[in-house]
Amino acid sequence: MTNPTPSTSPAPSEDSDTPSVFVSDLATRAKKIKKPKAKERRRERSAPRVHHAIRPTATHRCPLHEDPADCKGVRIGPKLETIYSRLTGDIRITFNDASERLRGLTVGASNMRPSTLYRTFYETSVTLSSRVSKDTHVRHRENEHLKLRPGNAFQTVGEVQFNDNITKEGIERHLVWNKKENPSTWISMFNELSHAKRRAHFHYDESKRIGQRVTIVEISTADLIAATIHATCVSVWEILVKEKYIGWDMHYNVTTRDVQIPIWVHKSVRPADGSSITPDQLMASNADLFVSIRELRQSNLVDGPQTHSRRRTITADGHNYEWLALGRIRESRITKVIPFDGKTFHMAKPTSVVRSEAATEDWVFDFDLETWLLESEMNKAGALKRKRSDADDGDAEYAKTRGDGGEANQKNAHSLDFSIITTIFDSA
């Protein structure tokens, strides 16, 4: 099916009855029809009628309900309601504002930036990792040439797009379980070892995707400094409603607001005079970018529009202990590797062999290679040494997402090849 081509005519105004000129062909009906006189037919499906909802107040942005009270208790399917945001305008990254100096002074005391972060992973994590065999690395059709780049200990499936990823919706995409399209560009970490251990037990003992080779790594934050992104955030909220005998109606609203997003970056990107830099300068430097969920909740990033589901949001309960890395975690940040055999977390190399207790095969941990190997391969790998380069030419790793999976409820959703979101941002 080909994507519809937009017309040069202006978009219909609110409550317009003018049908959209976006048109796409529908697949032919099934050829095997029992009635002998039935013929193959084709039908044309038009894009929805578009209604631009303009709300008088900034606090109420719903494109479907004029009265905020009407939004309460309403549930709309995930394929029928979408919010997409992008950072626009003169985007600056500052280092010497009062807020950054305050965050820099509270290192350790308030856990604003812990000295060590922890990441839990296992053999089938949807993540590229230098400590997992390549044959178990994820493959994805949206990034067919996906490969772990030199210098990366972890790398995302999703390719980093700065203006799209560092938004409320870009981060909340990371919180959705098992969603394959539009893969996350964030990597999860924890600010305490206890949280990483709890996640390791979950993967080994409870998760439906069983992990038999579970490991925790310690990640240094010693060279991270506080910074803030100043930008204009444009959010497009669209809702599809199917009207009986008429077809689809699309209601949308556009919100523009200023945001200040707290981040942590490698100290090398700060100019000597402390002046601000642009996102292009940051990305060109290949410097790390980390965010704290706790800090994001205290920022105005979370003040954007909320879908009717109210789920999987940054402001949901829990996860104050979580940090996210954009795109990748460098090999040079890994300070310790802790294998979990199902019973014990081995903080140091023991005198006996570490085996995965519940594994269906004889997996043992190689402390020299810092990875799990079949015992039959240990002798072959005895002479090998891991070669890790600290050079950085990449920026992407796929973090395991969380949430309660929304794909199961999408089978009855629409399949229209039209979105006002694409139209608005492509014409910007």
TrEMBL record:
<dbReference type="InterPro" id="IPR056009">
    <property type="entry name" value="DUF7587"/>
</dbReference>
<feature type="region of interest" description="Disordered">
    <location>
        <begin position="385"/>
        <end position="410"/>
    </location>
</feature>
<feature type="region of interest" description="Disordered">
    <location>
        <begin position="1"/>
        <end position="51"/>
    </location>
</feature>
<feature type="compositionally biased region" description="Low complexity">
    <location>
        <begin position="1"/>
        <end position="13"/>
    </location>
</feature>
<feature type="compositionally biased region" description="Basic residues">
    <location>
        <begin position="29"/>
        <end position="40"/>
    </location>
</feature>
<feature type="domain" description="DUF7587">
    <location>
        <begin position="113"/>
        <end position="244"/>
    </location>
</feature>
<dbReference type="Pfam" id="PF24494">
    <property type="entry name" value="DUF7587"/>
</dbReference>
<protein>
    <recommendedName>
        <fullName>DUF7587 domain-containing protein</fullName>
    </recommendedName>
</protein>
